[in-house]
């Protein structure tokens, strides 16, 4: 019974088991990015790439499944908490607001047209020219 309660408690917060999506970006730093570095980016802790392009985080809308997955992976919290996190750092002037789009197709199109843009895909394949290297 204890094991069941523990498993139920762990399962209650699915964010603990969230997986990082596939990173996609346009004209980012030339070095591979670790998962830790990617988390820092998706938490708004990096604003300029080493090549001097501004970091533009691109996410699907806050009511989408993809947004909830990014929230679970990056912040280990739900979508509402992730949205509050971003609102807080934007209003503090610590980061620019992410670009929110309706679908992963729109995320890809936006990234393709904007240097320094980065996002995560969960359902679409990443075009080779937008692949972000990870170790």
Polypeptide structure, described:
By secondary structure, the protein is of the alpha/beta class. The chain has one domain: 3-Layer(aba) Sandwich (D-Maltodextrin-Binding Protein, domain 2). Helix content is about 40%, strand content about 15%. It contains five helices and four strands. The chain has a four-stranded mixed β-sheet, sandwiched between helices. The protein is globular, with a radius of gyration of 15 Å. The N and C termini lie far apart (about 40 Å). The N terminus is likely disordered.
Nutshell version of this structure?
This protein is α/β, with parallel strands linked by helices. It has 5 helices and 4 strands.
| Class inferred from helices and paired strands | alpha/beta
Number of strand elements: 4
The number of helical segments is: 5
Q: Rounded to an integer, what's the Rg over CA atoms?
A: 15 Å
Portion in strands: 5-15%
The count of domains is 1
CATH architecture: 3-Layer(aba) Sandwich
Strand order across the biggest sheet? 1-4-2-3
Helix coverage percent: 25-40%
Topology order in helix (H) and strand (E) letters: HEHEHHEHE
Shape: globular
CATH class: Alpha Beta
Largest sheet, strands/sense/barrel: 4 strands, mixed
Regarding quaternary structure, what we see is single chain
- End-to-end separation in angstroms reads 41 Å
Descriptive keywords:
135 residues
What's the structural blueprint in terms of helices and strands?
Blueprint: H1 2-12, E1 22-25, H2 35-42, E2 56-60, H3 65-74, H4 79-91, E3 99-101, H5 104-113, E4 117-121
Parallel strand pairs: 2-3, 2-4
Antiparallel strand pairs: 1-4
């Amino acid at each position: 019974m204890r094991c069941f309660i523990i498993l139920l408690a762990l399962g209650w917060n699915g964010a603990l088991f969230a997986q990082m999506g596939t990173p996609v970006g346009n004209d980012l730093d030339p070095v591979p990015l670790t998962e830790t570095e990617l988390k820092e980016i998706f938490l708004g802790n990096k604003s300029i790439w080493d090549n001097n392009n501004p970091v533009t985080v691109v996410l699907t809308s806050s009511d989408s499944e993809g947004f909830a997955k990014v929230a679970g992976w990056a912040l280990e919290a739900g979508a509402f908490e992730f949205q509050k996190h971003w609102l807080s750092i934007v209003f503090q002037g610590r980061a620019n607001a992410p670009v929110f789009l309706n679908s992963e197709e729109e995320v890809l199109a936006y990234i393709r047209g904007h240097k320094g843009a980065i996002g995560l895909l969960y359902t679409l394949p990443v075009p080779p020219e937008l692949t972000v290297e990870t170790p």
